[in-house]
Task: structure prediction
Amino acid sequence: MSSPPSYGLFIDGKWVEPPGRSRFSTQNPATGEPLGSFVSGTPEDVDRAITAAARAFPSWRSTPAPHRGEILLRVAEVFRRRKDEYGAIVTREMGKVIAEGRGDVQESIDFVEYMAGEGRRLAGETVPSELHQKFCLTVRQPKGVVACITPWNFPTAIPNWKIAAALICGNTVVFKPASNTALCGTKVVEAYEEAGLPKGVLNLVTGSGGVVGNALVDDPRVRAISFTGGVETGREVYVRGARGLKMVHLELGGKNPQIVLDDADLNLALEGVTFGAFGTSGQRCTATSRLIVHEKVYDEFLARLVKRVEGLKVGDPIDPTVDMGPVASADQEKKVLEYIEIGRHEGAKLATGGHRLTEGAYAKGHFIAPTIFETRHGTRISVEEIFGPVLSVLKVKDYAEAVKVANDVPYGLSSSIYTRDVNRAFQAVEELEAGITYINAPTIGAEVQLPFGGVKNTGNGGREAGSVAIEEFTEIKTVFIDFSARLQKAQIDLAE
Result:
């Protein structure tokens, strides 16, 4: 097998390979094929990247926001032109099926275009003053140098969610992608470079979170940190960032429920849970981890679901006929298999799956059979995030119990309910503890023009995407303009 291509760091508008650095490789999780060799960045590399970003900040900040938007439109055009190429890279490096690989890139296109439009908004507000001849307003200003630290499961979309929003607001960025999708991260930066982004505005440092990530979080010149990943790592990022009084935005885990009531369209609910639980091999923060089914339709629905899941085609995700690919890495495979064993030891009933696929074409990859457990609420597999193709099914007696079970977990990202009762649907919107609720649709399928995020251990309350994305990357300045030509005193009786 030939050596994979080598890639460097992107600092101050140049691709560099600092001497003496160790390197790491990424592999295709379906075949074991090496895809690229990357620099293991050091604190010195991070320092150089932050220095470049800080130096570029004054000029980029003073660039009119509509002009910044024009550059983002060119970035989107690069992604559009290379959609098939980049989509295949996503599939080969991360393992999601090719339709989802292209969808990852399409989401990048959609969001970058959406953020380009924000260049003509970046709205503040105007409000009346309590005094005569005085004008009150707010404006948005960039924070400065921003660190964007991203996961492997949406290796072009999530970086663009962060980078495009940060850039349109006038910030400069140091970007650290997940190590096992470093090639996707490199391609994201190449698109911005091709679009003509000024040097130093976007910098890339690959490497481990413990080295590169910590150096980014600890540097006082970094004024905001946008992190998507696991809860424990996110908590550490939050604590370290707090020492510098930095704005830290966290998007973390989920244990997302799909509720199926006894009046639901079972055919539709079946389609929803199959895609929600096993699309991207369950490796979405919004994946359906729990299926909560009314006892009146439980047996029928579970039987139909098992039959449907056992008919899914698992294989190399580059094949367009494949329904589900591998999990993303050996570490991910190990974690998922450990949770399957936990389910067995807890006494959960295995309905299907529950094992690694190893024969023939599966031998070199990280393939796990789509797995369904019947369990009770409160078991580890029913409350802990697994992040793989493992679904816990729980029986409930009515709507009230379904909502109680749905809410009784540490997370609150996405939720779903299938019912024909409009009153129940609106009640669920009000009562489900989640940042996102779907009615008669799966727990996955967010759209870029709407906010994305959750409550409880899912994050620290901010939202990405939609028009609120700019809130993460801007400071509000309040402005008072007094044109009365005399001293006026607020909060004092005007009669005085």
The chain has a mean pLDDT of 96. The radius of gyration is 24 Å. The CA atoms of residues 365 and 459 lie 32 Å apart. The chain has two domains: 9-252+459-478, 256-439.
